[in-house]
Amino acid sequence: MLKKKEKEAEFVYKKVPVSPDEIDIFKPTKERVLVKSNSFEMAKNQIDIVAEKMGLNENITKYLKKVERSLIVSIPIKMDDGNLEIFEGYRVHHSTVRGPGKGGLRFAPNVNLNEIKALATWMTWKCSLLNLPLGGAKGGICVDPTKLSKGELERLTRRYTAEIINIIGPDIDIPAPDINTNAQIMAWIMDTYSMNKGRAVPGVVTGKPIEIGGSVGRESATGMGLFYILEALCKKLNLNLKSSRVVIQGFGNVGGTIADILYEKGVKIIAISDIKGGLHAKEGLNVKELLKWRNKFRFLKEFNKNNYKFISNEDLLTLDCDILIPAAIENQITHSNANNLNCKIILEGANGPTTPEADEILNEKGVIIVPDILANGGGVCVSYFEYIQDIHSYFWTLDRINQELKKILVTTFDNVYYLSKEKNVSLRIAAYMIAISRLAKAIELRGIFP
């Protein structure tokens, strides 16, 4: 049972009492049809699943399934060769009921509005679950940044910032790095915003270089958070992490960081992949070697070592292992491959890597899934710390960053874990219950304007 002080979730707007045995939360109804492809439909479907479980008021459910605002902008850029190219960009606020929007900015050729809406929605749940005074937002530009020069990339970033300048700011929406964006991109956003405001405004973005208001520990925060959560789970389950076999999909900032941390702790990483595929070795990979290779040559498929076998991303997910960490992009574990997974624990480093259909299959198999809004919360947590430091112009040490990060994440994990046991639900359902109940309470207290 939850202790009184640990019982964080207040279930407001209940229609009727609902017990775990009364409904099948994964069974499609006339009102809720499981959707496989559209990320935003998947996010809304997740709301329906939890709302049904909680007996949430239909008006609140309806409210949470809409985004507050979506901005689509055209970004004309003069290329180095003199030609004009026009790119499309997005910024979405899902909810600012509990505070300013917070969410990353990604540059990728497949970015679209539905994806950004879904990611903004998941950011709302994540901030609420961690009990941060922030809402959910996300942004993106449909572009392949590898085909741009540094000058073109800077002009693209600055023009995009100018186009969305009226809906970002320290008290409105604070962007951060995401796929294919980094500290330099954040520096250009901060400078563009500051030049338009006539003063330095470091709090407009997080993930900046330390020299202009960034925070120590930000770059490794998501990976470090994954480790703290995994460590806490292993203690609850009495598992020896060092004897576990780990598979990681994704070798960017998140996947690379958690791989490095686990390798340093003596954990065996038997497979890891990037966008082109991965490497597999039953006896374990040398992560330090692979990180050096990635930083110099980028793709793992070109790394040659006799005892390493090349493997596709699809096959990597089905390897026999103890812990699978999907740390790439959304919709990787679906109804079509969930039955083939051979892991005991899934630690979601990416946002939305597992569909509701896959959740049903994996829960029936007894796989423990640590959901994205809990597992990868380290990034937004340290982004919040950076935001606080910028506002107060007082910066913390790395020890303090990691200490505060661990305290928030482990406390949140404990709350989710205890609630999942009390209500006999999965960790994902428990996490959503806490996040959504806080939002529902905030909506109740604030009311609907006018």
Short description:
This protein has 450 residues and is an alpha/beta fold. It contains 14 helices and twelve strands.
Mean pLDDT: 89
Strand proportion, as a percent range, falls in 15-25%
In whole angstroms, the N-to-C terminal distance is: 41 Å
Q: What topology, given as strand order, has the largest sheet?
A: 9-8-7-6-10-11-12
SSE map:
Elements: H1 39-54, H2 58-64, E1 69-78, E2 84-95, E3 101-108, H3 113-129, E4 135-142, H4 150-164, E5 173-177, H5 183-197, H6 221-237, E6 245-249, H7 253-264, E7 268-274, E8 277-280, H8 287-297, E9 309-311, H9 313-317, E10 323-326, E11 345-347, H10 356-365, E12 368-370, H11 372-375, H12 378-392, H13 398-423, H14 427-446
Helix pairs in contact: 1-3, 1-14, 3-14, 4-5, 6-7, 6-12, 6-13, 12-13, 13-14
Overview of the molecule:
This protein has helices spanning 39-54, 58-64, 113-129, 150-164, 183-197, 221-237, 253-264, 287-297, 313-317, 356-365, 372-375, 378-392, 398-423, 427-446; strands at residues 69-78, 84-95, 101-108, 135-142, 173-177, 245-249, 268-274, 277-280, 309-311, 323-326, 345-347, 368-370. The longest helix has 26 residues, at 398-423. The chain folds into three domains: 9-65 and 426-444, no CATH class; 69-202, Rossmann fold (3-Layer(aba) Sandwich); 221-375, Rossmann fold, CATH 3.40.50. The chain is 42% helix and 16% strand. It is an alpha/beta fold. The two termini are 41 Å apart. Helix 6 (221-237) crosses helix 7 (253-264) and helix 6 crosses helix 12 (378-392).
